[in-house]
Amino acid sequence: xxxxxxxxxxxxxxxxxxxxxxxxxxxxxxxxxxxxxxxxxxxxxxxxxxxxxxxxxxxxxxxxxxxxxxxxxxxxxxxxxxxxxxxxxxxxxxxxxxxxxxxxxxxxxxxxxxx
Length: 115
What we know:
Blueprint: E1 3-7, E2 10-13, E3 18-25, E4 34-39, E5 46-51, E6 57-59, E7 67-72, E8 77-82, E9 91-99, E10 102-105, E11 109-114
Parallel strand pairs: 2-11
Antiparallel strand pairs: 1-3, 3-8, 4-5, 4-9, 5-6, 7-8, 9-10, 9-11
């Protein structure tokens, strides 16, 4: 049973920081690429950041230089460090991985940036 559990969301002022965590179970974590996606109401879900098993990273242009994705294979956790937050970052953030050709998602954690 693949399970992804996000945490770390909340209310933060513009210019502030948050660190999101996703704890994974039910698959061989160290062999899997992991991703963070976000979705605001009425919009499509978009990729924010991705990290491969070899720790190669990919970022959405809108978050480059502000967000950092990382992973701890011992803790089976992927992180998203978010700095210099602005109102455009307000969204539900979801953890993602693919196992046996199927996508799995966490339930999400809400990030609200106040101005």
